Amino acid sequence: MNYLPASDRYDNKIPYNRCGRSGLKLPAISLGLWHNFGGVDVMENGRAMLRYAFDHGVTHFDLANNYGPPPGSAEENFGVIMKKDFMPYRDELIISTKAGYLMWDGPYGEWGSRKYVLSSLDQSLKRMDLDYVDIFYSHRFDPETPLEETMGALDYAVRSGKALYAGISNYPKEATKEASRILKELGTPCLIHQAKYSMFERWVEDGLTDTLEEEGIGLIAFSPLAQGLLTDRYLHGIPEDSRAAKSWGFLQKDAVEPALEKVRKLNQLAEQRGQSLAQMAIAWLLRDPRTTSVLIGSSSVKQLQNNLSALKNLSFSESELNQIEKILK
After folding, report:
1. Which one of 28, 187, 303, 309 is most buried, by most CB atoms within 10 A?
2. Using an 8 Å Cβ cutoff, are 30 and 24 in contact?
3. pLDDT tens per residue, range 245-288
């Protein structure tokens, strides 16, 4: 049966925030396909999450060339789902992808050269069977390639019609400012910066958010739940089937154990607010008007539903914010 999205999907289900000083608005919560949408995952589960998200006003789906595993498979799966369900609604969607991390052998398979960036974009469009993406990112700063070259590639991607907007991700403050200057001179202003940001990862507050505001660039925060640490998953220690119990991945046991006391105190405050810890962590990021959107991952429709419910309580009292700071210090 053909998918028909909810007719009330725009009826005050989600706020849309202006991205920097651009004309584009993004949903306060966007769905990332970093995990759980790859070739090792169940496609119908990912399909159900994408449908649920769109039914509830989430119009932004975020990908990258290396998402999977294996790399590229998230884009391939998304392309299949896009064709089956979402192609009639393409103009209602913001679809983003990125280039920067290792994708193929040899000297041209990663980083920020014009050769790699534009070849990667062509491959991404082919995998997703799309004519264009809405946002195309340089996924990481390349210290060995002139910024003029990398930003020139983003500018060309927009001018060629293969992307509508240019963005950067994981760029330090000074490189962000220089990238913005170059793109403005080229006539393709930087739309957005995607940065790792959570209660436990606050490097962006050391000048980057101020730079983004000055330059008119939006901020979209990824890993808002610190790879699951800012959820109820670890309140009673490290479960055997959790990410932190594995010997690989970004969340390791030695990072979890010292944070558990803070996690429990934050959870108590969230309960007082009538929220889960995950919901409070998402709302906390959105407290700053410079945060355009929070990029969440999800492994199930139930988890997605819980995270979207963060939008039911986005306000914090001064006392609550002070308590959070005290806990985090």
Report:
1. 28
2. no
3. 444 455 556 677 788 999 999 999 999 999 999 999 999 999 99
Q: Which stretches does DSSP call E strand in 140-289?
A: 163-169, 190-196, 218-222
Q: Find, among 316, 311, 315, 313, the residue nearest to 15 by Cα.
A: 311
The 8-class DSSP code of residue 88 comes to G
- pLDDT (average), residues 26-54: 97
Residue with tokens 């069977």: 129
* Structure token digits, residue 7: 């007719």
Backbone angles phi, psi at 187, to 5 degrees: 90, 10
Nearest one of 323, 204, 329, 197 to 267, comparing CA atoms? 323
pLDDT digits (tens, 9 = 90+) for 135-174: 999 999 999 999 999 999 999 999 999 999 999 999 999 9
Q: How far apart are CA 77 and CA 291, in angstroms?
A: 29
pTM of the model: 0.94
SS3 state of residue 292:
strand
Task: Annotate 243-255 with DSSP letters as a single string.
Answer: GGGSSSSS--HHH
Distance of CA 38 to the CA centre of its chain: 16
Structure tokens at 240: 């055997």
Q: Collect all residues with Cβ–Cβ distance below 8 Å to 44 and sequence separation of at least 6.
A: none
- 167 Cβ neighbours under 8 A, 6+ residues apart: 96, 135, 136, 137, 138, 190, 191, 192, 193, 194
DSSP-assigned states of every residue in 102-156: --SSSTTSSTT-HHHHHHHHHHHHHHHT-S-EEEEEE-S--TTS-HHHHHHHHHH
| 192-195-220 Cα angle (round to 5) | 50
